[in-house]
Design goal:
The chain is of the alpha/beta class and 542 residues long. The chain contains 16 helices and 25 strands. Bound molecules: adenosine-5'-diphosphate.
Length: 542
């Protein structure tokens, strides 16, 4: 027997029309060089429809890829919806990739047009001659940067001039499985891989993020995506904002801690999301500031140290809310609130639970699989295996990429490359990325856990642990530590502090004091770069 309910496609035009008709007075606020610029969802929707007209005028194909090379702004949000709602595919380009990787992804996705912030032309401009399919460059004037006289073979336009001359279009998408957007992974090993989201996957992912046990986002919220709109689908926040009618606050190019705190304070932000390194910086800028409007600080992309989350709880009354995901998982796939059964635990025990990645989101299935036997590991909190996930917003393959078979199992699950444990409460803990685990004498040391303990030392601002070659043990951990300004720390003091907090054989063989931990293109600690920096290093114990 079949259900007797109507069928309707899960398409982004639905979200768009909600903002346009139900929340026309709510706002998209952009921090620009010239100050705060406000646009209502009513204005935003009209401009997005004009943008659809611009795509037609420029002759962009029916499913043409529309590249963006931009900060988080209202214009970027116009593109975020005008592209998929007109049937095209939004392709957000990571402005911090290496030049040759930018060329690779533009050509691989076959972008027909790129919308670029003027202030970013200095990065994109020199690469335009390497693009094989780009016919148009549309410059979004954000008040800084030079515009080169011409780009041979590419027509150059001004965003506002195109909009002023365009006519609004009707949006009509009926196939929920149509591609809506694409995002490439940041390519720490080899070329970036393309993930193609559908209308349906973006729709379902956004609705899951709105559930109370996830971000619980709603119309009353004012959401600040510090996470770039080119990083993993902006964690779904652009879709969530538009669908719920929440105000969106776009930080533009200034992502300094002071600028972020200014926005939280002046716009009364309720939800602010970014990677841990962002919140490490913001913590130092909270003195004397009023951030009482905040109700949630979702954070992921790399492990959230317990000490960081606790520092927020103590300072402003709310801990950081850890989430886990990947570009391939849209990205929200796990995280969320503590179960009610943990209400009676001590604050410290609850903080320990927040250092896990919580439970999988509704809609996502998971298994933790022993990498040798291929069997599921028991839910005992210490048996490790690879985390594999499946669900309607998890990629099933990469775009035109022969590397797909390595990343997906024969029965269709995504192999995340993350090593995890799962406990009796179904709470997942990321032990490490497969490639970051320190393999010492046949045993594994979790760099994530070790970093967590090191960062609990009050004098430590940042720390990253890497495994380096050791003749006897194969690999041993080197702790790369940044000491807080005005504080002092010696290797012996740190090792004494760690003694008892981690197993003896986990203690780092050496501590390198460095000025700053290098960052990846999406602001995570770059262990690749650290490993390169210490490639010729020999341990004193070796
Ligand atoms: P890239 O793979 O290009 O670095 P992603 O943002 O897609 O970019 O990275 C996904 C990876 O980030 C995950 O596989 C995992 O290793 C790491 N990650 C994400 N969230 C967390 C978290 N809360 N704790 C630990 N690691 C995380």
């Amino acid at each position: 027997m079949q259900g007797l309910m109507q069928d309707g496609p899960l398409v982004l035009t639905h979200f768009f029309e909600r903002a346009e008709t139900l929340f026309p007075k709510k706002e998209v606020v952009t921090s620009t060089r010239a100050g705060i610029v406000r646009e209502t969802y009513g204005e935003w929707a009209h401009r997005s429809r004009l943008l659809g007209g611009v795509f037609d005028q420029l002759g962009i194909s029916a499913d043409g890829r529309i590249g963006t090379f931009a900060w988080n702004t209202a214009r970027h949000l116009e593109l975020y919806f005008a592209a998929p709602c007109s049937g095209r595919v939004l392709h957000t380009l990571n402005i911090r990739l290496f030049p040759e990787q930018i060329t690779y992804v533009v050509n691989h996705a076959e972008d027909e047009v790129i919308f670029v912030d003027r202030s970013l032309l200095a990065i994109l401009g020199p690469l335009v001659s390497t693009f094989t399919t780009v016919k148009h460059l549309v410059i979004m004037d954000d008040g800084a940067g030079d515009i080169p006289a011409s780009f041979p073979g590419v027509a150059v336009h001004d965003y506002e001039e195109l909009l002023a001359a365009a006519s609004p279009v009707e949006f009509h998408v009926t196939d929920e499985n149509r591609a809506a957007s694409m995002c490439y992974t940041s390519g720490t090993t080899g070329n970036p891989k393309g993930v193609v989201y559908s209308h349906r996957s973006n729709w379902l992912h956004a609705v899951a993020a709105m559930t109370a046990d996830s971000l619980g986002a709603c119309e009353r919220d004012t959401i600040l995506p510090v996470v770039p709109m080119f990083h993993a689908n902006a964690w779904g926040l652009a879709h969530v904002g538009v669908a719920t009618g929440a105000n969106l606050v776009m930080p533009g190019p200034d992502l300094s801690p002071a600028a972020i705190v200014d926005l939280i304070e002046s716009e009364r932000v309720t939800v602010a999301a970014g990677v841990p390194t962002i919140w490490m910086g913001v913590l130092e800028a909270l003195e004397g500031r009023d951030v009482s409007s905040l109700r949630a600080i979702p954070c992921g992309g790399s492990a959230v140290p317990k000490s960081l989350s606790e520092a927020y709880r103590v300072r402003i009354g709310i801990p950081i809310q850890q989430a886990w995901g990947m570009t391939e998982t849209s990205p929200l796939a796990s995280g969320g609130q503590l179960k009610s059964e943990f209400d009676d635990l001590s604050e410290d025990e609850r903080a320990d639970l927040r250092a896990t990645i919580g439970m999988v989101s509704i809609g996502v299935d998971f298994r933790v699989v022993d990498q040798v036997t291929g069997e599921r590991v028991p839910w005992d909190g210490h048996s490790r295996g690879e985390l594999q996930v499946s669900g309607p917003w998890i990629a099933r393959e990469y775009y035109n990429d022969s590397r797909s078979p390595e990343s997906f199992t024969a029965d269709g699950w995504l192999k995340t490359g993350d090593v995890a444990t799962v406990d009796e409460h179904a709470y997942l803990r990321i032990v490490d990325r497969t490639k970051d685990v320190v393999k010492s004498g046949g045993e594994w040391i979790s760099s994530v856990e070790l970093e967590n303990e090191i960062m609990a030392h009050p004098a430590v601002a940042e720390a990253a642990v890497i495994g380096l070659k050791h003749r006897k043990w194969g690999e041993r951990p080197l702790a790369c530590v940044v000491v807080r300004p005005d504080m002092e720390l010696t290797k012996d003091e740190l090792l004494t502090f760690l003694d008892g907090r981690v197993a003896k054989w986990w203690l780092p063989d050496d501590v390198a004091f460095i000025d700053a931990v290098p960052r990846t293109s999406v602001g995570k600690f770059s262990k690749l770069e650290l490993r390169q920096r210490f490639a010729d290093y020999t341990f004193p114990t070796d």
